[in-house]
Amino acid sequence: MTSRRTTTDVPFTAQQMFDLVGDVERYPEFLPWCVALRVVDRDISDGAGTLRADMVVAYKVLREKFRSKVTLDPEAHSIDAHYTEGPFSALRTRWRFADYAEGGSNIDFFIEFRFRSMLLHTTATMVFEKAFARMTDAFVARAFEIYGDNGSDGEAAQQ
Hints:
The chain is built from three helices and seven strands, in the order βααββββββα. The C terminus is likely disordered.
């Protein structure tokens, strides 16, 4: 199983980052290699609950579609996604957001995966490092785009 974890400090609140990462339907607008995403069903009330989504990722000649169940917990500022269908034998992501007393927050992101096919797993793992490094950066760049430079200027600008 291939896994990675990263933590990043940002000048945005945990709630802002939770809202941004939880808005999965917008991923194709800014997330590298995410070419399509469709929410199949959702059971969400007051920002909490679960949804199932199909994501299509593409990189050069590789193109894969998979389905995940996403659990949103706004009180804990956490988002968990568990793979349910597609080319993986396992896929899990975990986001945690924690506010700092002086402002801003910390993003803790974890991902682990294994493809069913050893050939696909070996090939995908070669590009995984590049994709992983760009993933958190893409969310942070999106936060600056939506919320502005200090986390409060663009709060109302989120769509």
